[in-house]
Amino acid sequence: MPRRKFAWENLPDEQLLKLRFSQLRVRVEGTWLEDCVHTLYEELEERGILLRPHAWISSEWFSPADVPGIAIPFYLAHPRLMKLEQKMMLDVEGGTWSQCMAILRHEAGHAVQHGYQLQRRRRWRQLFGPSSKRYPRYYRPNPASRRYVQHLRLWYAQSHPDEDFAETFAVWLRPRSNWRTRYADWPALKKLEYVDELMGEIAGKRPLITTRERVDPLRGLAETLGDHYRKKQDFYTFKPPKTYDRDLSRLFSADPRHRRALAASTFIRRHRARIRQLVARWTGENQLTLDAVLDDMISRCRELDLRAVGSERKLVMDFTVVLTAKTMHALFGPSRRKWIAL
User: Fold this and answer.
1) By the number of CB atoms within 10 A of the CB, which of 20, 98, 159, 186 ranks highest?
2) Measuring CA to CA, which residue among 69, 56, 10, 4 is closest to residue 31?
3) CB 109 within 8 Å of CB 167
4) Band of pLDDT at residue 332, cut at 50, 70 and 90
C-alpha cells in the first residue's frame, strides 16, 4: 500500500516541533504497524484467545485500565517522526519489527488482563500480587532475581504486579520462546505454568470487557511535539555525581610530553555514539542519561587537559568498561538511584 503523504513530513525539525499532536493525523492503518498488530492477532489466535486488542495512535505506549486495547506512540507511524524521535531521544523504542512485537506482546498481556479481569482471581493475586497496588514512579530491581521473567529491558517485571503478569504473558506468547527450558529451576516458572493453565481455561471464551474506547487518541491531544520532548528529556536526563576524575586520569594522560596527542575530549566525542549505544544495550540505561554523563566527562577532560595516548581500539574498549562500571554503580550501588517505572 502506498504510504500516505503529509504536508509536515518535509518540514525542518524546528517547525515540526511546533506542531500539535492533533495536527499529525497519523494512523495505524496503512503502515508497518498494521502488519505488526495482525501478527499479534495471529499469535493470539494460535493460542485460542478470542480477544483482539484494538490499537490506536497516542503519545506513548500504554494499555489503559479496563480497556482491552493498546496505544502505540505516534513516532512509529511515519519514518519522518521516527527520525525526529531518534534525534530527540537518541533511541526509537519499538522502532524495529522485533522490538515492536516484543512491546505489543507485553501490552497484549495488559489487554488480556483487562478484558478477562484476571486480577480478580485469587491465584493470580497470590503469584503476582494485588493489581490495586499503587503504581510507583520509581522502582529498584534486583537483576539477580529469578522470581521474574526477563522480557523488556530494566527488569521491568519487578516494577508492579500488572507488569509482572504482562511480562510473563509476553514470554509465554512469543513463538519458539522455549520458556519451560529457559526458566527451568526458576521460581518464575510457576508464573509461566499458571499463565499457560489460565490461557487454556479462557481459550475460546469471549472477554468480559469488550469496549473499543480509545484513551488519549492523538487527534485529541493539543500538546506540541516540542513541549512533549522537553518533558520527556527532563524526565530521563539524570545527572550523577561527578566521581570519575580519577578514572579519567588513569585512562588518559595529563603528562606534558603528550600535549601533541589527541585531546581526550575529542576522542570521547568521536566515539560517543557507538559507546553510548553499547553501554545502553548491556546496562539497560537510557541513552539520554548516558549522553549527559558523557557531556560531563568531556568537560572534565578539557579541564584536566587529558590526552588520548596509545592504541585507539584499546582506549575505546577501556573507556566503554569505565562508563559501564560507573553506570552500574549508579544503578545498583549503595546509593543507587531508583529506576523510572513507566
Assistant:
1) 159
2) 4
3) yes
4) low
Element (H, E) at 57: strand 54-58
Q: Which grid coordinates are listed for 101?
A: 512485537
The model's pTM is 0.80
| Rounded Cα distance, 316 and 314, in Å | 5
Residues near 5 by beta carbon (within 8 Å), at least 6 away in sequence = none
Instruction: Tell me how far apart the alpha carbons of residues 70 and 66 are, in angstroms, rounded to a whole number.
Output: 12
State which amino acid sits at residue 49: I
Task: Give, as one character, the DSSP assignment of residue 63.
Answer: -
Extract the C-alpha cell encoding 52: 483482539
Domain assignment of residue 126, given as a range: 7-225
Q: What is residue 324's predicted lDDT score, i.e. its pLDDT?
A: 86
User: Distance between the two ends of the chain, CA-based, in angstroms?
Assistant: 34
d(CA 54, CA 52): 6
Tell whether 181 and 258 lie within a shared domain: no
84 and 42 fall within a common domain:
yes
In the prediction, which pLDDT does 174 show? 97
DSSP codes of every residue in 262-284: EEHHHHHHHHHHHHHHHHHHHH-
> Under DSSP, is residue 139 helix (H, G, I), strand (E, B) or coil?
strand
Strands 262-263 and 54-58: unpaired
